[in-house]
Amino acid sequence: MEVDKPLPTYGALELEQSFSVFLELPESDSFFDKKKNLLQKKGFNTKELCLLRSSHPDLIRTSLKIMLQIARIINLDEVELYFSEDDASLTVDFYSPRNEIVSLNSILRLVENSLDGHTQMQKNILEELRNVISDMIANCSDKNNVKSVIVEDHCCDKESCLLQWGEANGTRSRLGIAYVEGAGRGAIAREDLKVGDTALEIPASLIISEELVKKSDMFHILEKRSEMSSETILLLWSMKEKHNNNSKFKVYFDTLPEEFNTGLSFGFEALMVLDETVLFEEIMQAKEHLQAQYEQLVPPLFNEHPDIFPPELYTWEKFLWACELWYSNSMKIMFPDGELRTCLVPIASFLNHSLYPHVTSYGKVDSTTNTLKFCLSRPCSSGEECFLSYGNFSSSHLITFYGFVPKGDNPDDVIPLELEGDEGDSEDDSCISSITTHMVRGTWFSKNHNIFHYGLPSTLLDYLRRAHNPMLQTKTLLQESLENEMEILEQLRLIFDDMMDKLGDVDLEDRENTRWDVKLAIEFKDIQRRIVSSILTSCHSGLDLVKDNLCMCMAEDTRG
């Protein structure tokens, strides 16, 4: 998105007293066609010019409402796009907390980058627009705030030493470190921070990347092996560097736990709890992959070069520890040379993940300052935990690679559905494979539970309608269409009845005295049950709704 400045052409007095904002869906967007289709359903094009003629707050809010509808669609991620309501008559004011904050900030950046070089009237408009956006961000923040409980008497000496080390080496931080109940270490705002403030700024020299490993004694061995990715090289380096008393990053490695407690370390009992769930499959596949990778790469290294790769430092247990370190703490960072590298960023790893993060945009080293900045997308009050977004991940992914379930309803907690079929896609007539993957999530996220919607994803319902009767004109209050609706709702009900049976009964054991991994496994199954239960409720409610309409339809036919 960019700002379109008024052109000083003849007769442009009115333009000189107004301001226009140009919003564009870039053609490079991975989901350009789908977003274009959604924009058009809402009455917009992929390029829209929004004109602001007055600084009056009511007019500014009206214009912002239009801009925000466009920005929300432009900033949809894959899951949000799949579950977007396709009813053009339904005014969608919200997709997700993430989408709302990102969309508001995208417009705010346009405004703040355009405050210079305009007439006073235009500046007044921009200032008022900025104020209205800031108020909306604050309101959204208040509605979706996560309250953290700080454990006051917990010792964080090692973490404080790391922060002091960072500041002595050029780090600028407006965050402190504390122990957070249920989450471990967390970053706490030392002062009130507003949107756009830099909460943390870390010099590139303190970022652990492949460039650092190139200076080590093992790089000349590893670079000759074609099967070695840069991430694997970093992982192997960290296994040894952790025990290097002369390491520049010793104070960082000293703060790392001996056990990360991610899904990769789940024991037998926890895995049995998860049997026949998507999380079980995810953990088992990941562990099998890592075990095979270890057997292929590591023993040959310590057998051929025991002086560089001491066997006692390269056991399977230590390899798994390093994998968990990089999975749970690494970040993708874009450097000024244009290279995107997987890195460890000391101090930044204290920022915990949230569905309602304060920092949503990061990961690029500033070429002017040669620092990595973490700027706020929503306000953070003094004493409040400052959250980061690790990405739009499901709870199964977060458990497997990070070892936690986020607080709140996660819009990315989806259940994939593999449905048999062989049909042309209604949008582009391309052939779909015989197995088509769709997904569902908790129907409480949907705003439309009316007939033909039921709180279920429109993409899935339309697919099933075409699969049942490709020639039928669907979504009409006619007998054949309504009977088709009953068939697809009954099909979904049977699928999710079976899924609920496989999830089993609610685990009622004493969770407080249960192992951490079993506790997480039970929590995940609770989430799955809640999602499946909501879908079954929607199916039953939908069947009742369709039956009522079918009865009315048949009664009218009888009278007719």
Automatic annotation (TrEMBL):
Residues 173-391 form the SET domain. One of its GO terms (molecular function) is protein-lysine N-methyltransferase activity. InterPro entries: Rubisco_LSMT_subst-bd, Rubisco_LSMT_subst-bd_sf, SET_dom, SET_dom_sf, SETD3_SETD6_MTase. CDD domains: SET_LSMT. Keywords: Methyltransferase, S-adenosyl-L-methionine, Transferase. Gene3D superfamilies: Rubisco LSMT, substrate-binding domain, set domain protein methyltransferase, domain 1. GO terms for biological process: methylation. SUPFAM superfamilies: SET domain. Transmembrane segments: none annotated. Pfam families: Rubis-subs-bind, SET. This is Rubisco LSMT methyltransferase. It comes from Trema orientale (Charcoal tree).
